[in-house]
Amino acid sequence: MRTNTLRRGLVALFAAAISFGAITQAQAQPQADHVLRIGYQKYGTLVLLKARGTLEKRLAEQGFTVQWTEFPGGPQLLEGLNVGSIDFGVTGETPPVFAQAAGADLLYVAHEPPAPSGEAILLPKDSPIRSLAELKGKKIALNKGSNVHYLLVRALQSAGLSYTDIQPIYLPPADARAAFERGSVDAWVIWDPFQAAAEQQLQARTLRDGQGLVSNHQFYLAARPFAERNPVVLGVLVEEIRDIGEWVEDNVDEATAQVAPLLGLPSEITRKAVIRQGYGARPITPEVVRAQQAIADTFTALKLIPRQLVIESVVWTPPKRIAQHAE
Fold first, then answer.
1. Full-model pTM
2. pLDDT digits over 155-203, tens only?
3. Any idea what the Cα angle at residue 141 is, between residues 43 and 134, rounded to 5°?
4. Please, what are the domains in the chain?
5. Is the link from the previous residue into 116 a cis peptide, with omega within 30 of 0?
6. In Å, what is the CA distance from 251 to each residue of 97, 226, 245, 258?
């Protein structure tokens, strides 16, 4: 009974968006043919790309303008993509799995290299918990359907625990941090820069990060209709993302100086998050598809999504000339 409730709750986050989109479709403003609407989160390569302005200059040559919308997390961003308010965005590994399960018409466009240390299970500094096995029966805060959801599942499995052995408390990052500080939860599963901030400001202790458990890829995703109509635009976009990622790798201090004020965080916290991220957007490979399929299969086996998924069926295949240029 509890498993069914969990499954319904997890998929509802995305299914509600689908229903909302159907209800409001008649009221929606028609999208301009030459606008690229990008969803981004508070931290990541897209933040720097937005600040740099080079994408806008290149796409102006294609007759496109760019609009940016910030989202608090991957699940919310994919809601926006599903209801048609954005065309492109970036999330962690798990949100697109739940979105696909709920019927979102999305495509995987590119991915970043693994960044397993950029997410972790955190404990209050004075917590008596010393092992994953001690999480049994404990309240654990996480953003439902986010990348850290899979980290938590894998970490529990590694300790011989099942997902039903803990009490998940589904909260977005800001609310989860407040609950963590109050002591209302026993642990918090979170990603950077929230992870780095909690480590520095709250002296939160890392029980387990993703190393050896998950890849923690970042995925760039597009609405299928937009991708099919505008492959050249997506090709330019991926090039720009890759270029700025390579710049960050070679200019960590300068990137930190740019990102810190955008996040409202001190430089030492921001730098830690910058270093732990993966950079260099690249095409989706068969190996990445297999890894993502394993995530989908895990959640299917747990009955947290209602049906078997085929990840390969939602991978963007660019025209040959664009694919060759991206390699």
1. 0.82
2. 999 999 999 999 999 999 999 999 999 999 999 999 999 999 999 999 9
3. 125
4. 2-115+216-263+278-326 (3.40.190.10), 116-209 (3.40.190.10)
5. no
6. 33, 33, 10, 11
